[in-house]
Amino acid sequence: MKTEIETIPGETPGIAYELIVHHLSGSDPAAPRVYIQSALHADERPGVAVMHYLIPMLEHAEAEGRLLGSLTLVPHANPIGAAQHLFSNHMGRFSGATRVNFNRDFPVPGKDGVRHLDNASSATFAERRLKSRLLELADGCPIVLDLHCDDEGVQYLYVPEILWPEMSDLAACLDAEAALLWDKGSDRAFEEAAFEQMRASAADGDLSGHCVTTVELRGQIDVDAQTGLKDAEGIYRFLQARGVVAGDAAAPDLRGGFVGKPIRHVDMIEAPAGGTILFHAKPGDRVEAGQLIAEIVVNPGFKDGCVEVRAPQGGFVLTRRARRFIRMGDNLFKIIGDEALVAGYEGALED
Ligand SMILES: [Zn+2]
Fold it and tell me: What is the pLDDT of residue 185?
């Protein structure tokens, strides 16, 4: 494995960021190339734990000649966001410089199929140069994994609908509980930008064998040795199934109760009042229409001081808010409803 430390100059004198990039060399030029990054939202750490276990596994395979495809790994994909603290609180989702979500607004190919990237000396914000560089590192890789997490949630994947069910091997190897299938973009998230570039460069538009996804590795605090190792082993098994690493190519079956639905099925349940949340349902639960899923305590101790939240339809609880204080209108749950919503989401679910 070779490690390179790239420098991203900041916008003002005396500021620079380091991007650590690992390269592993496969022995078979015909095997798929792979790009994996974690912590693009810099406050999402489950993917970093996965990298901690995955990197030695792949190094070992490389040393023993079992690595067929080449890999590029970026465990700290967002050094700019990692450095953003305000009054001791870390803020890794939005850029403090531009207020843009670090996982939105990536450059995508235009109608002419041409993509315009910034380079190291482009006179623009560091985060724009970082975004271009991350995409460049993923170029030419038919397998691209972007490791994220939700607030509190089960493990689930965002998948371009056209790559489903072929990508169910990844969901099965990871033992994921759900997949959201999208076909209308996501405000140019990294996954969408990587996918659009794949599509623009695919011969005859053939995307078979391709895999690009945002993996939501459960919730923000689901970071521990056991879970990190399990997910690293899952990705390793997937890499074997896709012929990147030599070994048993058989992927397991999807777990029982797996939910794979178009994104239009996602019910974003918003808080009807501000206050303190008392949850009555958790990620992974099956809920029925009308079931009490949360109460918001507005006026503690009074009979009418609490607002009930009920499931609008039957479905699968995908995520819920981690903090127990909420504003009116903030997202409380994501539920994958049994029925598609008439005015359902087609792009990114959140800012
Ligand atoms: Zn994220």
Answer: 84
Q: Render 264-294 in DSSP notation, one character per residue.
A: GGEEEEEPSS-EEEEES--TT-EE-TT-EEE
The last residue of a domain, from among 257, 286, 306: 257
Per-residue pLDDT tens over the stretch 50-101: 999 999 999 999 999 999 999 999 999 999 999 999 999 999 999 999 999 9
Question: Is the Cβ–Cβ distance between 148 and 124 less than 8 Å?
Answer: no
CATH code of the domain covering residue 306: 2.40.50.100
Residues 115 and 245 occupy one common structural domain? yes
Q: How many Å lie between the centroid of ligand 1 and the Cα of residue 245?
A: 27
Q: How far is the CA of 107 from the centre of ligand 1 (A)?
A: 18
Both tokens assigned to 347: 């792009």
For residue 136, the CA-to-ligand 1 centroid distance in Å is 20
The pLDDT confidence band at residue 17, using thresholds 50, 70 and 90, is very high
Torsion from C-alpha of 167, 227, 135, 70, nearest 10 degrees: -70
Q: At what angle do helices 190-201 and 126-138 cross, to 10 degrees?
A: 50
305 Cα: distance to centroid of ligand 1 (angstroms): 34
Q: DSSP 3-state assignment of 350?
A: coil
Same domain, 198 and 305: no
Contact between residue 138 and residue 194 where contact means Cβ atoms under 8 Å apart: yes
